Amino acid sequence: MKRSVLTIFAAALTLVAADDPWTKVQELKSGTDLRIQKRGVPQPILAQMDEANEDRILVVIKSEQVSILKEQIDRLDARPKSGSKMVKETKTTTSGPGNPSAADQRIGGGPPGPSGSTSTGVTFGSKPDFETIYRRPIAPPKK
Prior knowledge:
Blueprint: H1 2-19, H2 22-26, E1 33-38, E2 45-52, E3 56-61, E4 64-69, E5 73-78, E6 86-95, E7 115-124, E8 131-135
Antiparallel strand pairs: 1-2, 1-5, 2-3, 3-4, 5-8, 6-7
């Protein structure tokens, strides 16, 4: 009997832990970009994740490590890590001697030979937008 009660209790604890949104915060990797909305502060804090435990989060703000209590956080947004931000594109065109472009025609009337051109461009992608990871649960009304 005791064994089944303990099994049910352990399963219930697992379900409660799975529903806790703070576990997503604890799973964030160090260096993740964060936007933290503290209770009573109109401007959000931009920081980088260091580590988190059950009741606080350690973040880096302008090379200074700061601890913020879980109760002080109304909302926490994280920017997902993206792949390569730089994209290189190369385009090559060639034309044969029988069909030269106007730019390839030679002065002096000689027959033009084969020609070609290559252009390379680099574009930088923007960072992905923040996604809400944690929102402080609304407290039940007081009686």
